[in-house]
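Bumping with the actual sequence this time:
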Amino acid sequence: MRIANDAGRLVLVRDGGGLDVEKASLGLFGPDPQDVYDRWAEFRAWAATAEGEVRPLAPETLQAPAPRPRQVFAIGLNYRAHAEESAIEEPGFPTTFTKFPASLTGAYAPIELPSDTVDWEVELVVVIGKRAHRVKEADAWEHVAGLTVGQDLSERTVQLRPPVPQFSLGKSFPGFSPTGPELVTPDELPDPGDLEISCSIDGEVMQHARTSHMIFPIPVLIEKISAICPLLPGDLIFTGTPSGVGAVREPKRFLRPGEVLESRIAGIGTMRNRMTAGPAR
């Protein structure tokens, strides 16, 4: 199953178009995409036989598939090559921080650059569909609603300002967490643990890897995080980025106004976000 947030309305994605869930269900499910995660099992059962008019979807109207999560977790240094390029020892436990929900935006939304040190980080994003607390690795996928594409955009000056790094603030400017264009359930993918992931700027490939290169795969992340705090329906986990970020390049390379950042995960979809200039500095 694939779902999307079309201008604030929940739709089932079929044949390149969208089936409006509220209309097709005669009000059994409302239009708000966030609400469906609290009723995920019921929704999936209904969606399996849902019928109705499928209308075209315009990319520019697609917003975040889970637009108002209660919690947004993010994982740092979860690909060996990224840890190596960052000259940091491979972690023995997931390096976890938060991105504040106000930073969420859609897969085709413009993103304002607050400075000239904004970096890219394409990521596979997990959306939780069932409360997970003290969940074992073997049972973790049962708690996943679906997967989507994300970018963990990072203002490196704020993030790394001494004496103590401010990961959450540096990664939570408005628009710094685009997700989409769709949410895809794991059963739609041949192997949800091994997906091609890439990002480019104006067509130039900056990152390219497979999600099977993660140090801590999705089931392990869910086990480790849920051992400490419950994961709630609709919560997000940004699972980490591959090598190729701008801050470790020589010379350093950051995003510029006018550039188009394209983020792709095979089997899920592609986001295209144009950078715009922020206030005069």
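The tokens above came from a reply further down the thread. Residues 79 and 213 are 6 Å apart (CA to CA).
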